[in-house]
Amino acid sequence: MWQSRNFLGALLLLAITAGPAWAQFGKNVTIPAGSEEDHQLSAINAATDPAQKLQLIDAFAKAHAEGDFAIVANEQYVSYYLDAKQYDKAFEYGDKIFALDPDSFSNVVNMVRAANEKGDVSRVFSYGEKAGGIIQRYKAMPAPSGASADEWTAQKNNKLNEIKENESYIEQSMLNAANQQKEPAKRAELLVRFSKAFPDSPNAEQAMTMAAFAYQQAQNRAKMTEVASGVLAKDPDNIGILLLIADDYSEKNEQLDKAEAYAKKAAALCDAAKKPEGLSDADWQKQNSLQKGLALSALGQVDLQKKLNPQAVDALTKAAPLLKSNATSYARNQYRLGFAYLNLRKLPEAKQALTEAASVDSPYKGPAQEKLKGLATAKPAGAAKKAS
């Protein structure tokens, strides 16, 4: 009689259950029931004194320095040092497992857990990427001899479903580590790495979208454009990215026709969008209104650049009430509106828009105040119209 032994040390995580040998991640080490190894492992598991447990593990490891039982010995060390919160030792023995079994998914879960608990972002990502590689290699494996294509696909899907909770844990660990980075460029880099490690994940596109915005914040326009273009190639209806590119081009007075097309498309998508599950009506209204406002504001900026001032006033006026939930976006919109009115020589309206821009705390407060000072001695609206 034989029994399968699996020593997954990570708490809160699902054990990987045994199936046909060709359906496993990595090696499947079995222990003969009633064997000396079985008794040794039972004694290790039963020991409650940490010093005694370590002595028993040392004895098992010494007796099994090579072969598959060495994997089991190193698993015992990983479990022991995880419980003891000696994370560097856990990494040491986890790496020994990878040397013997590169596709050990249970081990990579333990390593991510150790990196999480230690707060080691670098290792969260290096082990997370290793997990992604294990999964991608498994998905690409051809059907083994004796297994039909349908049977193999079913077995792989079953196994992938079994590790889904562990995979989600690893993904969230990587995303949390990335989002905690205060430096935008570093955050963007990690988000891109995540997407490459888990390209089939529902989180991959969102991560790349966030990376594009992080590169914008880092003022790395080349990387922002590269990442944003990649997102749009896969999802042409990504509202956030459409707005990002439309805003960038309109501000830089480049590719204005593309900026206009993207802004119009984003506005239309907002009109047709449905509230996602799990989002309150109030939050959805705020999000959708803000996005529609940003689209209209970008259109207004395009019209300003094209010197189509009446159209700019129309778009920017419509955008204003939709942007009030975001001080910076609202102030920028009113600042733009002020210039559109100035171009039309409508000074009272321009002063009103600029006053609104200066009324909220944003980067546009100072410039709007300076512009208002310059308008203090300007001709009245009637004189301006007569002069025109």
List keywords for this structure.
single chain; 388 residues; Serine Threonine Protein Phosphatase 5, Tetratricopeptide repeat; two-stranded antiparallel sheet
Lay out the secondary structure:
Elements: E1 2-4, E2 30-32, H1 36-46, H2 50-63, H3 68-83, H4 87-100, H5 105-118, H6 121-140, H7 149-162, H8 164-179, H9 184-197, H10 203-217, H11 221-234, H12 239-252, H13 256-272, H14 281-305, H15 309-319, H16 327-343, H17 347-358, H18 365-375, H19 381-387
Antiparallel strand pairs: 1-2
Helix pairs in contact: 1-2, 2-3, 3-4, 4-5, 5-6, 5-8, 6-8, 6-9, 8-9, 9-10, 10-11, 11-12, 12-13, 12-14, 13-14, 14-15, 14-16, 15-16, 16-17, 17-18
Rounded to the nearest angstrom, the distance between the terminal CA atoms is 100 Å
What would you give as the CATH superfamily of the domain at 1-144 and 158-178? Tetratricopeptide repeat domain
Strands side by side in the biggest sheet: 1-2
Number of separate helices = 19
The value of Rg in angstroms is 30 Å
Mean pLDDT: 90
Shape: elongated
CATH topology of the domain at 1-144 and 158-178, what is it called?
A: Serine Threonine Protein Phosphatase 5, Tetratricopeptide repeat
CATH uppermost class of the domain at 1-144 and 158-178: Mainly Alpha
Structural class: mainly alpha
Low-confidence parts:
1-22, 381-388
- Identify the CATH architecture of the domain at 1-144 and 158-178: Alpha Horseshoe
- Report the count of strand segments: 2
Main sheet overview: 2 strands, antiparallel
Topology order in helix (H) and strand (E) letters: EEHHHHHHHHHHHHHHHHHHH
Secondary structure: helix percent: over 70%
Strand content: under 5%
